[in-house]
């Protein structure tokens, strides 16, 4: 079973300097949601941003150990415009 801290650390390894918040949405250790604010997302479309987040988790997605990961991704500029909600 995975936990939010593990997923957060994997994302941070791939996107250092990012702000990452992860939570287990069902308590079963296989459904999560994450909010990632990263300078690496600047100028990238949402699909490209999500690929950057999914990449370090690919092994667990392929095995089904990580069944679902809902993403909200923002560049720092996008996040600032939203008022850091």
UniProtKB/TrEMBL annotation:
InterPro entries assigned: BolA, BolA-like_sf, BolA/IbaG_stress_morph_reg
Pfam families on file: BolA (PF01722)
Domain of life: Bacteria
Record-linked Gene3D superfamilies: Phosphatidylinositol 3-kinase Catalytic Subunit, Chain A, domain 1 (3.10.20.90)
UniProt record similarity statement: Belongs to the BolA/IbaG family.
Name of the molecule in the record: BolA/YrbA family protein
Originating species: Myxococcus stipitatus (strain DSM 14675 / JCM 12634 / Mx s8)
């Amino acid at each position: 079973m995975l936990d939010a801290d593990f997923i957060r650390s994997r994302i941070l390894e791939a996107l250092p300097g990012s702000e990452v918040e992860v939570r287990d949405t069902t308590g079963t250790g296989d459904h999560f949601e994450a909010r990632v604010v990263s300078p690496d997302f600047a100028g990238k479309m949402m699909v490209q941003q999500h690929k950057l987040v999914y990449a370090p988790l690919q092994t667990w997605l392929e095995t089904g150990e990580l069944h679902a990961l809902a993403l909200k991704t923002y560049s720092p500029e996008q996040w600032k415009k939203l008022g850091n909600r």
